[in-house]
């Protein structure tokens, strides 16, 4: 209706779990994948991650701590969390993923490691451990709330809020603050933004969120998991594999090949919760006040300054 495109110019659509075809002899020669192997439809990366995290009901959300941080719920009915922005198709047929994104979310963690974390990166390599273990020590050295250092993770503009003028911001600096405070403030700022996303989902769907599943590379950090539980005031559950997207694609294959009768059965058999992090009441109280009294006011207060920055400097292009 909108474009001069004929139906025959478009690809045919298949639901997750359906067979798309079989690996040809030529494809096998190029890739090494066995000839005749079935090719099964799955879903987008985040959609598969939700399935691989075992999220099946509207009261549970999947937090993805990846390059783009997201919070996603699964629903059987179509619902736009941001008006006129459609939900994504789920990796479960005829379901929808209602998602709020924090663009370049855990990219900020990589940025910190590259700019300020050389010491830990070198130590981790020498000790043969994951760098996240040493960065967790930085987080644990700082009290909840980072001694008032607050970060707003708007590194990239959004569609509605933040708008095109948005910038990242960190406020509350004092002479007590170190790079450890900055690192913890980054993790806290991302969790604040995702909690705000959860509240948007709850408001639009009229369904209360009661459980969190946290997947992606950032979920390997125990410190990140604990502060997530504290900021949300809910148990933070880590799936038994952090690469939940790959598991979700495997679940689509298992259903498509008839190894499991349907998606709920496959998810019940192939996913499980690993570690669970419970909210700590004292930390939760601190975060509740910082979130409501400071974080939720930051964007509105700083928006005129962002507009001036853009007008004066021409950034972003």
Which characteristics define this entry?
globular, seven-stranded mixed β-sheet, alpha+beta, two-stranded antiparallel sheet, single chain, Nucleotidyltransferase, domain 5, 317 residues
Walkthrough of the structure:
The protein is α+β, with helices and mostly antiparallel strands and 317 residues long. The protein has a single domain, classed as Nucleotidyltransferase, domain 5. Helix content is 43%, strand content 15%. The protein has a seven-stranded mixed sheet, with helices on both faces. A hairpin with a 4-residue loop joins strand 3 and strand 4. Helix 2 crosses helix 8 and helix 7 crosses helix 10. The longest helix has 33 residues. The model has no long low-confidence stretch (mean pLDDT 91).
Structural class from helices and strands?
alpha+beta
Strand order in the largest sheet:
5-6-4-3-9-10-11
Q: CATH homologous superfamily name? A: ATPase, nucleotide binding domain
What is the radius of gyration computed over CA atoms, rounded to a whole number of angstroms? Answer: 21 Å
The total tally of domains equals 1
In sequence order, what are the helices and strands, one letter per element? EHEHEEEEHHHEEHEHEHHEH
Number of helices: 10
CATH uppermost class: Alpha Beta
The average pLDDT score comes to 91
CATH architecture: 2-Layer Sandwich
CATH topological fold name: Nucleotidyltransferase, domain 5
């Amino acid at each position: 209706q909108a474009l001069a495109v004929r139906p025959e110019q478009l690809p045919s659509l298949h639901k997750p779990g359906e067979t798309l075809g079989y690996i040809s002899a030529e494809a096998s020669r190029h890739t090494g994948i066995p000839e005749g192997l079935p090719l099964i439809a799955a879903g987008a990366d985040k959609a598969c991650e939700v399935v691989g995290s075992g999220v099946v009901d509207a009261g549970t959300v999947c937090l993805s701590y990846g390059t783009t941080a997201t919070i996603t719920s699964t629903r059987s009915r179509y619902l736009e969390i941001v008006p006129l922005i459609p939900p994504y198709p789920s990796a479960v047929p005829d379901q929808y993923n209602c998602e709020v994104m924090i663009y370049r979310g855990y990219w900020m963690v990589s940025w910190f490691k590259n700019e300020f974390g050389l010491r830990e990166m070198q130590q981790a390599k020498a000790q043969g451990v994951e760098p996240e273990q040493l960065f967790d020590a930085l987080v644990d050295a700082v009290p909840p709330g980072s001694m008032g250092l607050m970060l707003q993770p708007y590194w990239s503009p959004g569609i509605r809020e933040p708008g095109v003028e948005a910038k990242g911001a960190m406020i509350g600096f004092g002479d007590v603050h170190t790079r450890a405070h900055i690192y913890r403030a980054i993790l806290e700022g991302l969790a604040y933004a995702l909690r705000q996303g959860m509240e948007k989902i709850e408001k639009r769907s009229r369904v209360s969120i009661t459980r969190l599943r946290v997947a992606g590379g950032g979920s390997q950090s125990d410190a990140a998991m604990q502060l997530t539980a504290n900021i949300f005031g809910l148990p933070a559950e880590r799936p038994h594999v952090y690469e939940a997207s790959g598991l979700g694609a495997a679940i689509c294959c298992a259903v498509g090949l008839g190894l499991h009768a349907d998606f709920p059965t496959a998810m019940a058999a192939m996913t499980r919760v690993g570690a669970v992090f419970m909210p700590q009441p004292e930390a939760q109280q601190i975060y509740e006040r910082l979130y409501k009294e400071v974080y939720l006011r930051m964007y509105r207060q700083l928006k005129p300054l962002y507009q001036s920055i853009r007008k004066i400097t021409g950034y972003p292009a």
